[in-house]
Amino acid sequence: MTEWAAGFPRSRWTEDGVEGGERFLAEECAVAIVHDASTTAVLMATPRDLEDLAVGFSLTEGVVDDVRQIKDVEVVETDLGFEARIWLTPDRSTQLAARRRRMAGPTGCGLCGIESLAEALHAPRKVEGRLSVAPRALLDAMALLPGAQSLGRETRAAHAAGFWVPGAGLVSVREDVGRHNALDKLAGTLALAGERREGVVLLTSRVSVEMVQKTAAIGAAILCAVSAPTALAVRTARAAGVTLAAVARSDGFEVFTYPERLLG
């Protein structure tokens, strides 16, 4: 047993009969993202790398523009889950407080911390990366991802987000039961490490619009995923200057935007 997975008894049925055994299941708990003592969002997440999650969420959701606007992060366990408490620099704290005062009242939106449709569908920052990657190198990078998924191997129930840099390899991988959380954790660990951004974001999930927006916030010019994107994700990648490759298999992939970075 680990802090992010727990063993449960189960019965397995096959045509040969029924057998007992145990399966490790990924833990899932409530994680409150708290900025300057006010809750911004509550996520259901794997209780692992929560500082990375807090920092990455703050960056990819636009609470901060730079990791230097975060003074301190503290993760506290409670009876109901975890609180990731982020303290901002005075200027950023003032801006966040003003944003909160603009809210007319409570909202029922399913997107964390979003106050309007305009915010949910905001134009992402434009990525100007000059990175180009050979098609075979991209497939080789994707092939490295399964070996780095400790939680995925143990539970078969977790998504992963990785960052691959030519010449350096797979520099970071983060996992979570939620695909958005995995990508936020990756964004956080890269920001805290001061990692260079000329790399490729690798995903084990489908590509929705939020995944493209978060990739653009990281500053990565290339995004590759094992599953297909949504139509809005492709339009957003085109607007963000992100090369979007998807449906990646051992023998190939499909490119939907800016193919010149991969195909020459």
Quick recap of the structure?
It is found in: Cytoplasm. The protein has helices at 50-60, 90-101, 117-120, 135-144, 150-155, 179-193, 209-218, 231-240, 260-263; strands at residues 5-14, 17-26, 29-35, 38-45, 70-77, 81-88, 159-165, 169-176, 200-203, 222-225, 243-249, 252-255.
Strand content: 25-35%
- SS class: alpha/beta
CATH architecture title of the domain at 135-263? 3-Layer(aba) Sandwich
CATH topology of the domain at 135-263, anyone? Cytidine Deaminase, domain 2
> How many β-strand stretches?
12
CATH classification class of the domain at 135-263: Alpha Beta
Strand order of the biggest β-sheet: 8-7-9-10-11-12
Mean pLDDT: 89
Major β-sheet profile: 6 strands, mixed
Q: What is the CATH homologous superfamily assignment of the domain at 135-263?
A: Cytidine Deaminase, domain 2
Q: What's the helix count?
A: 9
Give me the Rg, rounded. 19 Å
Q: How does this model look, in words?
A:
The protein is an alpha/beta fold and 264 residues long. It has a domain at 135-263: Cytidine Deaminase, domain 2, CATH 3.40.140. Helices cover 31% and strands 32% of the residues. It contains nine helices and twelve strands. It has helices at residues 50-60, 90-101, 117-120, 135-144, 150-155, 179-193, 209-218, 231-240, 260-263; strands at 5-14, 17-26, 29-35, 38-45, 70-77, 81-88, 159-165, 169-176, 200-203, 222-225, 243-249, 252-255. Helix 7 links the parallel strand 9 (200-203) and strand 10 (222-225). Helix 1 packs across helix 6 (179-193), helix 6 (179-193) runs parallel beside helix 7 and helix 7 (209-218) packs parallel to helix 8.
